[in-house]
Amino acid sequence: VAKTSLTSPPWPEVKLPDPVEEAKYHAEVVRKVNGLISAGEYGRLFAVVHFASKQWKITSEDLIMMDNVLEAECGDRIRMEKVLLVGADDFTLIGRPLLGKDLVRVEATVIEKTESWPKINMHFWKRHKFQRKKIIVNPQTVLRINTIEIYPCLS
Amino acid sequence: MVVLSAARWVRSRLTDRFWRVQEVLKYARHFRGRKNRCYRLAVRSVRRAFVRSTKARREKKRFLRALWITRIEAASLEHGLKYPAFISNLLKSQVELNRKVLADLAIYEPKTFKSLAALAQRRRQEGFLAALGDGKEPEGIFSRIVHHH
């Protein structure tokens, strides 16, 4: 068949590595990471957590402020369950989209429940005698991330 | 006798004019020129400042998202991937990190960002292979090759 502009795709041809060798490589990597986790040879862990409809990149001893009310008293310990990513210096565990609850544990304490500074909402339409002024005060909650722990149960 | 309203010759005078004026001037103290001292000018400036701050609060979200996208684009180009390829392949691999967190990872966790770029690249190549299909010719009527003997 004659070669036209559409015989070969416009992207360069790619070759994926051999699936058998890839499976061996993957198993080796998983074993190594499991070994590192169980030996405890990681420094500071960071995690990406989905909380209060926002994603936060957190470490231990971190302060977080949410712009809404949390139904927990000051001093309560909270466990954050929707963890998207956990990482240390040598390895990262990426969740698809979330990581298992038996793999990561993120604990936080409620420190403070205050209100935000009074924000002013103003609308003005010139030459039309239209003016509206509203003062908005949002409740806020401050959390301190105590610990991030991982357990060696990869497969 | 019971008196319910004040007599007609008694007039009331405004006594807290100072505080009403200070309520407005306190928001204008850091302005430039006479509008930080004179009430008539300050009222207009303060009103415009409030309106601008309300509008800016809505535009800040758009501005920050554009900033994150620029940063992610720069970081993914360092690893040889363009931004649309990076984001689309990450989403196809079911990694739902938002742009804010990706920008933070690109700044503070370069190794993690490199691994995410490699993941997106691998998913992209698998997508290309899946799009190619079998590599055989289609069995249509008009695309059939005519053999002259």
UniProtKB/TrEMBL annotation, chain A:
The lineage of its organism: Eukaryota, Metazoa, Chordata, Craniata, Vertebrata. This is Large ribosomal subunit protein bL21m. It holds the Pfam family Ribosomal_L21p. It comes from the Eukaryota. GO terms for molecular function: structural constituent of ribosome. GO terms for cellular component: mitochondrial large ribosomal subunit. Belongs to the bacterial ribosomal protein bL21 family. InterPro entries: bL21-like (IPR028909), bL21-like_sf (IPR036164). It comes from Menura novaehollandiae (superb lyrebird).
Automatic annotation (TrEMBL), chain B:
One of its GO terms (molecular function) is structural constituent of ribosome. One of its GO terms (cellular component) is ribosome. The keyword ATP-binding does not apply. SUPFAM superfamilies: Ribosomal protein L20. GO terms for biological process: translation. Keywords: Ribonucleoprotein, Ribosomal protein. InterPro entries: Ribosomal_bL20, Ribosomal_protein_bL20_C. The keyword Lipid metabolism does not apply. Belongs to the bacterial ribosomal protein bL20 family. PANTHER family: 39S RIBOSOMAL PROTEIN L20. This is Large ribosomal subunit protein bL20m. The lineage of its organism: Eukaryota, Metazoa, Chordata, Craniata, Vertebrata. The gene is Mrpl20.
